């Protein structure tokens, strides 16, 4: 049997890219022919990676999995090729997060098109794998059936912090986008520096050119609060370099208000970095953290800053947090991915 994963762009460091490679490696390890089909390959993976413009001899017994995080992949191409069809749903970021941006109408149109595409697919696919319960609930509102929750396929180390004492670097990894609430990290930094001027913020990710007005707002905010010399950006890093920069965080802070799944949260867990994150029912942050780390439901910046300083100065508290994070990682490292995919292959190979 052959399995084809379809994705708009194959990227090296994002959540969907991690999932695609994880599934590809698992299928290969259990003796299944695995291929990846994309419109653009930005990764170093070349073997068994096809592009949609190539003519390929698909067969009726092939199984196709479309990774969906919004419109972009040619849906007609996916639905028209021979073989069984299935969906791997990641999430769609609601357009209201971008209502103050010049690109709002365009993103609103994209969101509506994505919902239309999903609705048009639901009766043409065999099953859907959601990477979180949060995403499953969203598809249930569109009346999808045969849904299963399978987290993004990735292994994580379980680490104790190697630092005798924590420093003053708070950090975040992800796109610099309005739903990530980067401005709230700036506000938190402002209050942290009132406690100790040594605090700084390191941001690892990518600036989105379409969000130029948001980027200008962030720059203005940093200037207004006199934080320019305490905020450091690292963009477009290799996996190796990103891991190196990530490990320099003393705290991982998430103010994000929409996450379909949060790989950086779990990567921080695996590095022994205390994680403090905003929890909203509209996001999968709490679900991803699975009882590890610290969650807060109200953005009381002064109180959060005081709590961070408490963790920094009390090793026992920090150790308890890291222990909770390692415990949470056991769920992902012990998740029966192989069982699920063997079952899927068995159901469709005949």
Question: Mind explaining what this structure looks like?
Answer:
- This protein has about 350 residues and is of the alpha/beta class.
- The chain has helices at about 15-30, 75-80, 105-120, 135-140, 180-195, 210-225, 240-245, 265-270, 285-290, 300-315, 315-335, 335-350; strands at about 1-10, 35-40, 50, 65-70, 85-90, 130, 145-150, 170-175, 200-205, 230-235, 250-255, 275-280, 295.
- A seven-stranded parallel sheet has the order 3-2-1-4-5-6-7, with helices on both faces. A six-stranded parallel sheet has the order 10-9-8-11-12-13, sandwiched between helices.
- Helix 2 (about 75-80) links the parallel strand 4 (about 65-70) and strand 5 (about 85-90).
- Helix 5 packs across helix 10 and helix 10 (about 300-315) crosses helix 11 (about 315-335).
- The relative contact order is 0.13.
- The model has no long low-confidence stretch (mean pLDDT about 95).
The percentage of residues in β strands lies in 15-25%
- Number-wise, the strands total 13
Annotated CATH topology of the largest domain:
Rossmann fold
Structural class: alpha/beta
- What does the main sheet amount to? 7 strands, parallel
The whole-number mean of residue pLDDT values reads 94
What is the CATH class designation of the largest domain? Alpha Beta
Main sheet: strand order: 3-2-1-4-5-6-7
CATH architecture descriptor of the largest domain: 3-Layer(aba) Sandwich
Tell me the radius of gyration.
Answer: 21 Å
